[in-house]
Amino acid sequence: MNEVLNRIVKGRTPINIPLTNISVAYLQSKESGSVSFFPQVPVDLSTGTYYIFNKEDLLRDDVQRKPILGKVNPTIVSSDTDTYKCFPEQIILGYDEIIQSDYMRLGAKGMLNIRQSKSKIIADKMFIHRNKLFAQGYFKSGVWGTDLVGGTDFAQFDNANATPINTILETVTAMKRSTGRKPNKLGMGQRVFDALIQNPDIMNRVIYGGSTLNPATITEKTLAQILGVEEVVIFDTIWNNARLGEKENTEFICDENSMLLVYATSHPAIDEASAGYTFTWTMGQNTTLPIIEWDGEEGTYSHYIGGMMSIDTKIVCKDLGVFFKNAVAPRA
Q: What residues pair up with 187 in beta bridges, in sequence order?
């Protein structure tokens, strides 16, 4: 900064030049959010089918005693098929090469790399869009095998008398009883997480593990261990739900008051059950999220950077998911 300041004082660098060390961008962390909640299945075709094996047939005991000099009847395991369809979606950002070259000729250190910046913005907007697809396809009532409503089917978690551990463990056992699969992922809105880590039912499990220098804290990992699942994910990605020119209306993409408990396999396969899959079409490229750049119309000195994606979010086994609507009371 001292070198840049000296150049400004000597009149060698205008003070309005954009510098990388003071630029501000509201890019979101990709570590959270819902993008990786369900396994991704890369596909070579935009449309295809996949098998769904009959749960009742798979769980039936068809082993019979072999008759002397005879054989038992063949076992039938029926199956059905469903279809995925990936539609290409695109975003394009542009910039004027003349304006950028004017900045570049001034030679200010830390000059904003416009191509890198545009690519980051594209990646962030695609991340927002993928979270929206998740919220629209998965994180809502009426699409899973079981819907539970806070205040009706269970005490809402922001109620001091609520017992969320018992509520969730009972739901885990019910799914194991009906499907043979133990739920392994718990995704929730931000307010649900906030309520759980303050609920006495949860706090009493960790409060005596702290000290003055290292007070007990409840993280996603801690909560997962208490509730007996492999992973707890907070769906805290935000977006501006306002059109261009309208007043900003920033909010969480996924319902901040709700929660989703699922079994999701870590190894997608033909004969492996999973609550959901995300089919990702490569569109003939070597990546599922290609970002390319090209020159604009001759004489315009314009340059464009574009990103594409093509995915389909599918609920595969709806009985491997339980949606908790209004796990906490919505804000007034």
A: 233, 260
Maximum Cα–Cα distance across the chain: 104
R_g of the chain computed on alpha carbons: 26
**Is the pLDDT confidence value at 184 over 60?**
yes
Task: Select from 73, 53, 52, 77 the least CA-distant residue to 63.
Answer: 73
Q: With beta carbons less than 8 A apart as the criterion, state whether 272 and 53 touch.
A: no
Cα–Cα dist 104/113, whole Å = 10
79: how many CB neighbours lie within 10 A of its CB?
12
Give Cα separations from 327 to 149, 151, 201, 226 (angstroms). Answer: 7, 8, 15, 18
Residue 154: Cβ within 10 Å count = 20
CA nearest neighbour of 285 among 50, 43, 36, 115: 43
pLDDT interval class at 251 (50, 70, 90): very high
User: In the chain, count of helices (H) and strands (E)?
Assistant: 8, 15
Q: Which helix (H) or strand (E) holds 170?
A: helix 164-179
Which segment, 50-54, 222-226, 266-270, is predicted with the most confidence on average? 222-226
Q: Are 162 and 199 in contact (CB under 8 A)?
A: yes
81 burial type by CB count under 10 A (0-12 exposed, 13-18 middle, 19+ buried): exposed
Sheet of strand 311-315: strand arrangement: 40-43, 276-281, 311-315
